[in-house]
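User: Hey, quick favor. My workstation is busy. Could you predict this chain's structure for me?
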Amino acid sequence: MAEKRRRVFWPVLSAVLIVGLAVMIVLYVQMLVFINRLVGMVVDLVEREVLAEAPEGVDKAKIKETFEKVKWAIPRGKVDFGKVRAAAAYAQKARSDDDGWTAEEIDTFIEMLNAALGPGERR
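Assistant: No problem, here it is.
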């Protein structure tokens, strides 16, 4: 009787573990998709903010191009997030002034974002 239980137990246990593994893999893929979409939305929001507050004399096409590069580089892991964090701190400090963004501050911010991209992404 005990041997019959063992013969039934191991196949059931392995089936349960396989189903659990499949569920974990599906949840992992969903998490990656969610994170990529969330980061993409954040990049879009920052891009709109910079474009809306950009003063005259700023190359808006360069801003759009840089943010487009960032959106494509993030899912491939070609972004140095330490440099992005430094660029975000700079942007936060630059925006905290009463006069808002200056053209020089936006150009510096865009250069910092371009520096955060991997060598193959800067083109």
